[in-house]
Amino acid sequence: MNRPQKLTEKIAESKRFIYFVVRHFIEDDCPYRASALAFTTLLALVPLMSVGFAILSTFPVFQGLAEPVQNFIFANFVPTTGKIVQNYLLTFASQVSKLSAIGLVFLFIVAFLVMYTIESTMNKIWKINTPRHGISAFLLYWAIVSLAPLLLGLSLAVSSYFLSMPFFATQDVPALLSYLPFLCSLLGFTFLYIVVPNCQVKFLHGLYGGIIAAFLFESAKFAFAYYLTHYNTYQLLYGAFATVPIFFAWIYWVWLITLLGAEVSFALSVHHQRRPGIAIDGFSHALIWLYQLRLAQLDGKELSLDALINASTHAYATGVNEMLCVLIDLQLIKTTHDGHYVLSRDLNELTLYDLANMLPYRIPRSDELSIHSEPLDNLWQTYIKKNDNHLKHTFNISLEQLFRGDTIQRDTL
Which CATH class name applies to 282-404? Predict the structure, then answer.
């Protein structure tokens, strides 16, 4: 393959990738979900700040870092209006100690509500229908609430330690520290994409999505600050109240960037869905996987998820996670202790008719079989074509005749 042809294929792959990300960004209702996340974030800001900084203050090594952490967050992650918003939130947070037990419980619920909304959104993007429940969900939410201020405080403590050393006093350390906000953003986005979805996400996929999100976030900060300092539309409309809608718009924009980075991570993890050509229908998809698992069973082997995905060179119309859930729920396959897959039912006791009634996917038409180039085609396409021809003959009656109750004699096949 010559270099121009390789370049053409790379460009085509890049176009498919961008189209895939944009299409799923829209199909997953990310703009709407970003607005829901922005609203719950506004409600949970004070509780999250109170809980986070209370945790930070319990560690002696972080004593005195609460205010520097606050200043760092609002100076580097909230453009232009950060100081004003910080004063408002600190005023609100100071009232938390005066709340009753019921009020504290309410704040606790609100803080965890935003965590639940984040997880459900990530699961939606990764096509996961089974969210965490009970203790596992609580531990995840608590880890996010507690680890975020600890990690940020640790980074500032380490930075302060190095700045106090004689060697670094003679170096251009401020230039190096200017990258700290980007690194914090990168770590935060990567952590979100890897840990929050209720499925296994490879580190590199989460990292690449985190890089895209962190770059867009830093770019958005400059663009947002430039707009606010050069245009006074919000001030003219809202006057002294302008800080609130500006802050809300910024939170909404941040969540749009966050969800876009999540879509990038998801797109990287489902490379098989970006294969060129027409996607294989769900029924054929299930047959291909059952066939491959049967061959593996004859050899006394198990199949990994990658082996199942690469059983075809075509894209799949049905998501991999969805197909796994369907086949496992129907007790056709099961997961081994090492995360591989095997058959869990004797295929001698399962007919093609039984499978068609069990699966939530329609049987493909005979003209749709020509798009496949799978080893199964020679084995089962004859039966699919026969079924399709039989249905055409049996159902060759108009709806008017059907509703009148007319009986039409037909030859049996």
Answer: mainly alpha
